[in-house]
Specification:
Layout: H1 4-19, H2 22-41, H3 58-73, H4 75-85
Helix pairs in contact: 3-4
């Protein structure tokens, strides 16, 4: 199982269809996406300073460097990404 959402999501969706109707499920899903978009729009990052460093780390090295940066500077964003993966 890739994630908990893959198992629980359809179960919750089925329960919503049983309780309400299909149109209500689509509306609630659209509202959830709108809420997520508003939250993403509220994220403020500091302005970049200086020139980007040019290096030959490779893809894995850049991912590790990005996670380290998030852990050091933006713990909330790292938590949100971790929850999104779970």
């Amino acid at each position: 199982m890739d994630s908990l959402g893959g198992a629980v999501g359809p179960l919750i969706g089925g329960a919503f269809v049983l309780v309400g109707n299909v149109a209500g499920v689509f509306v609630s899903t659209a509202l959830c996406f709108l809420f997520a978009a508003v939250l993403l729009a509220c994220v403020r990052l500091p302005a970049r300073t200086g020139e980007p460093a040019i290096d030959d780390e490779g893809a894995v090295g850049r991912v590790v460097a990005g996670v380290r940066f998030l852990a050091r500077e933006h713990v909330g964003v790292l938590r949100a990404l971790t929850l999104a993966v779970i």
